[in-house]
Amino acid sequence: MPGLVSPGGPPPRITVPETPPQRSDSAKTPPSPSPLPKKPPSPSPSSRSKKKTPETPTNSNTLLSEASLDNPDLGPFLLKVARDTIASGDGPAKALDYAIRASKSFERCAVENEPSLDLAMSLHVLAAIYCSLSRFEEAVPVLERAILVPDVERGADHALAAFSGYMQLGDTFSMLGQVDKSISCYDQGLQIQIQTLGETDPRVGETCRYLAEANVQAMQFDKADELCNKTLEIHRAHSEPASLEEAADRRLMALICEAKGDYEPALEHLVLASMAMIANGQDTEVASIDVSIGNIYMSLCRFDEAIFSYQKALTVFKSSKGENHPSVASVFVRLADLYHRTGKLRESKSYCENALRIYSKPVPGTTAEEIAGGLTEVSAIFESVDDPEEALKLLQKAMKLLEDKPGQQSTIAGIEARMGVMYYMVGKYDEARSAFESAVLKLRTSGERKSAFFGVVLNQMGLACVQLFKIDEAAELFEEARGILEQECGHCHQDTLGVYSNLAATYDAMGRVGDAIEILEYVLKLREEKLGIANPDFEDEKRRLAELLKEAGKTRDRKAKSLENLIDPNSKRTKKESTKRWPGLGFRI
């Protein structure tokens, strides 16, 4: 957690505090950025040699009695016992009772209207123990109580105690998958830190970076861009040129630029980061940056340069980490994707097999997240070569690896959405709808219900509902997707236009011809005025609108088209309908 004891911890990280929050000028090299949330480590033993938990000087029954909690010496003692219990290796479960009673003692002994930093610290320790036991829901109210204890106006110690509480609460919400609440807590912690330390303090830079990474995970790239730029400015002011801190910032900045489609700026940041790492002798990190550079070159269709970057990285990884390290497998996956894009399917398949061989027998120390990420990437290649069955198997393996991991709800939701697409492709619409529904539920819970990705998943779920003749449910999903994509992507984005088309076809199937006409007229107007009419969809939409207007002009009410006929253009029609061709019923995947 940035700015508590040292400013460079990777997110999210929950540890048991050893000392009250205090200012420190120490700095660590930030880790390379990752969009995937990390599993919180269990409280680690102290660097001191292990020792037995000290015996209590009084009878244990007396110690644990409610009356004894009024003793002002008991709280500090119980807190020390809780820490020593963890340090001795006895585990957090035994320390939990000591921490609970320490907090009660501090609360009882607190002077009225006088905020107690000891109480705040004990609540932080208690929450950390709950988190180490994966009891995150129970940690939340403890931390919500802790952030109310300090009085920010009373000086730096109180301010940093409040900051610590907000950051720890943000980490806990992150582990619960509640990304929006997590980011809100981080932001409040940042404001307190800026108020106390000033806007240019190096620790403020680390917190900005921490918050930028959280925004990347939430796919809020504009906010992440703003925060990362601020971090970069602070580090350039306080660090030597080409420092490791600046290199780490530039890697994160490149990730953000790539996500936004700004490939040239991303490439520039990566080249500067690589030069800084070379100057500091960080060969393995240089290789990781080479992989990222290769990704940018591939996005720019500069395939020869991409291959060169990947091969450089592969050579370093094999020599420094071994032939079967997941880093080697990740490069194999990138090469497989590249050769698939360039039509060299035999080479692509070979690299996929090499990667899967490594993931099937991972070396010690490989995390489930690394394997799941690799399997997901390989599945995308199988999907692109029209092998959805094999892609589904890999996605199912990936999801199984992550299902018990805290903080992975958004990642699992993404995998479930991919599985929904695979099921849809092979005609298993019930399974597709179930997969999309599960993904939507997780995304709603995690606070991503306003992201463009969420809108796309809603659109996909709507299409599955159409195939199952759940037309009313499909209309609701398309309507919600339209609102989100209009807000996040704009009216002219292809995803938004696709939802417009799907919604118009759905309204037509429901007999709401007027609403369908209104949407199609709006889409045609957008294409004519802003996008141009060269797009092949323009003629299809124009024809569909002409049919609707012709039918709406009849003196009798138009009956809703049969869903069966709309979904399958080759299904049985009456003679009168035989000339009406609505390929794919106007629905767009």
TrEMBL record:
Record's compositionally biased regions (Pro residues): 8-20, 30-44
Q: Can you tell which superkingdom this protein's organism belongs to? A: Eukaryota
Annotated organism of origin? Pisum sativum (Garden pea)
InterPro entries the UniProt entry points to:
TPR-like_helical_dom_sf, TPR_rpt
Q: What are the record keywords, sorted?
A: TPR repeat
Protein name as annotated: Protein KINESIN LIGHT CHAIN-RELATED 1
Check the record and name the PANTHER family matching this protein: PROTEIN KINESIN LIGHT CHAIN-RELATED 1, PROTEIN KINESIN LIGHT CHAIN-RELATED 3
Q: Where are the TPR repeats?
A: 287-320
One GO cellular component term? cortical microtubule
* UniProt region (Disordered), positions on chain: 1-69, 554-589
